[in-house]
Write a structure and sequence with these properties.
The protein is 33% helix and 33% strand. The protein contains 3 helices and 7 strands; from the N terminus they run ααβββββββα.
Length: 136
Amino acid sequence: MRKLYLILILIIGFNFVNAQTEEQTLEWLLTKKAEVYDVSSITVQEGTRRIEITDDILHAYTDNGAFTKINWKGIKDVSKTDVKSQIVIISNTMYNGLNTCIFFKIDNPELLEKYIKALRHMAILKGAIMIDDNLF
């Protein structure tokens, strides 16, 4: 019985050791953010559009004052859209009857997939409850 507990503790320990921390994930997202372009949302559509990523929020904004903010904990899904190279981050908060969303593009298909995975990982680390795509 003692050996079983030891094995269980070792397995759990290895899973936590190999997982990226919030700081590592945020650093990776910021490093790769140079590949992000064509940022938009319901309110962020015209002008010079940018995205800011901090340990608290995702913030899409323009120079003319339009913005959309999504807290990490408020993210319910991160996925590809039907538009080529586009990622959508969907919040559980509403604006004008629709879920608040931030869209952006990354041309590199491999980086696109990794960026989605990193965004989802960061959201989960911050307490978000993500939609389970495998339910149905």
